[in-house]
Design brief:
Elements: E1 2-6, H1 10-22, E2 26-30, H2 33-42, E3 47-50, H3 59-68, E4 75-79, H4 84-92, E5 97-100, H5 105-118, E6 127-129, E7 132-135, E8 140-143, E9 146-148, H6 152-163, E10 168-169, H7 171-178, H8 188-202, E11 210-213, E12 217-220
Helix pairs in contact: 2-3, 6-8
């Protein structure tokens, strides 16, 4: 199993190579983001361990560029930045997992094995359904090149629908994932916000992307309606 480690701290880089090699991985080391980008695109890896604070090209941009190039190698962000927003940013731009320093090699290898079992599933930085584009990292929404202004709750609701496009999702599922802190709200609040979204992303464009499935929930058309 081949792993690319992108880490600019020499001692930690060598330690990662030694530790992962001892666990049976074949490991290559890149000392900055630019070298990491080149190596990730040139050689097939089963996983990438990627620091965020890198010289030349930071880890966020490395991840963003790989996903934009449709490189779906599983990426584990390994960093000293442990704020919840840093973790959310990493996942939003296409990373698959996140681990903070200091770390245990037992935990690191377990995370890598879990990523490899999942395989190379697409994690695009920008979500798309037809001409409807949603960028979770930049918190922007566009349709047919036109920018759409969404509230935080509307954006979260649309993001969940786009991530599950073509599938029926129930009001209960939407409440649990979009209104998690207020799960006991009246389920009709979902219907109200679906109406808000339709007035913003559908009606001005003559589209019908959000379908009501009577008695079951809602479905966003995978062609954008």
């Amino acid at each position: 199993m081949r792993v690319l480690v992108v880490e600019d701290h020499p001692a930690l880089g060598r330690a990662l190579v030694h530790g992962l090699s001892a666990e049976g991985f074949a490991v290559d080391l890149a000392a900055d983001g630019e070298e990491g980008l080149f190596m990730a695109g040139d050689t097939g890896y089963d996983a990438i361990v990627l620091d965020i604070m890198l010289p030349r090209v930071n880890g966020y941009d490395v991840c963003r560029r790989l996903r934009a190039a449709e490189n779906w190698t599983p990426i584990l962000m390994l960093t000293a930045k442990d704020g919840e927003y840093d973790e959310a940013d990493a996942l939003d731009i296409g990373a698959d997992d996140y681990l903070t320093k200091p770390f245990s090699y037992v935990v690191l290898t377990a995370h890598l094995h879990a990523l490899m079992r999942r395989g190379r599933r697409p994690r695009p930085a920008v979500l798309q359904a037809g001409d409807l584009l949603l960028d979770p990292g930049g918190r922007t929404c566009r349709r047919g090149g036109v920018s759409i202004d969404l509230t935080t709750r509307e954006f979260s609701l649309l993001e969940y629908l786009v991530r599950h496009q073509g599938q029926v999702v129930s009001k209960q599922d939407l409440l649990a994932h979009v209104w998690a802190e207020h799960y006991d709200l009246d389920p009709n609040v979902v219907e109200v916000y679906i109406g808000y979204l339709r007035r913003k992303i559908d009606q001005p464009f003559g589209a019908r992307s959000i379908e009501t499935v009577r008695g079951a929930g809602y479905r966003l058309a995978d062609d954008g309606g």
